[in-house]
Amino acid sequence: MTMPSATIRLQTPDDQPALQYLNECAFGPGRFARTAYRVRENSVRDPRLNLCMELDGVMVGAMDLTPVTVGDVPGALLLGPLIVSGDHQSLGHGLRLMLYGLKRAKDLGYRIVILVGDLPYYLRAGFCPIPRGRIELPGPVDPARLLYAELVPGALEEYSGLIRGMRDPSNVD
Ligand SMILES: CC(C)(COP(=O)(O)OP(=O)(O)OC[C@H]1O[C@@H](n2cnc3c(N)ncnc32)[C@H](O)[C@@H]1OP(=O)(O)O)[C@@H](O)C(=O)NCCC(=O)NCCS
């Protein structure tokens, strides 16, 4: 049996109800209190990096990469949320969405991606723990879950300090 392949595309305003439904199912109302959620809400998005995945016209996954500054240095992205709907999980969609997004972000000139998540999952996309105390979010986060992936070799060296939402995502150089 061959599996139908899912399509990755940019999110549009019409996708908002389906995206909200995915978020609600994955995280429930508690998502609004998460530190990473609050940073994202305070940042201008880069619409070139808000992705979703469709299968037979149904949205089955989504991932955002939000521009942030780290210690006032631009060129960084905060990954999340990454969601694949319950009945489509463990088919490789999450990894595919993530690798596609990382490649796209690199091509757009971004230098590093940071996220809060489970290392055993994100390891397979090349994420590692950020050395303790080097980079912080403005709220409580388990430091073992604060991960990074360099899009440019050695980029971590350029980034230390507090992560904040970014106002001008076009300036990534
Ligand atoms: C995490 C998530 C996006 C993975 O999507 P997916 O399409 O199922 O992922 P993949 O198919 O690429 O990988 C599946 C594998 O990852 C493993 N995995 C999933 N979540 C994991 C986690 N938190 N920690 C460790 N492994 C995990 C699965 O067990 C599976 O393992 P297998 O390959 O040995 O069977 C999806 O489970 C999801 O939407 N979860 C709810 C929302 C969430 O927690 N998002 C991440 C934080 S923002």
Automatic annotation (TrEMBL):
SUPFAM superfamilies: Acyl-CoA N-acyltransferases (Nat). GO terms for molecular function: acyltransferase activity, transferring groups other than amino-acyl groups. InterPro entries: Acyl_CoA_acyltransferase (IPR016181), GNAT_dom (IPR000182). Keywords: Transferase. It holds the Pfam family Acetyltransf_1. Residues 6-148 form the N-acetyltransferase domain. This is GCN5-related N-acetyltransferase. It comes from Rhodomicrobium vannielii (strain ATCC 17100 / DSM 162 / LMG 4299 / NCIMB 10020 / ATH 3.1.1). The lineage of its organism: Bacteria, Pseudomonadati, Pseudomonadota, Alphaproteobacteria, Hyphomicrobiales.
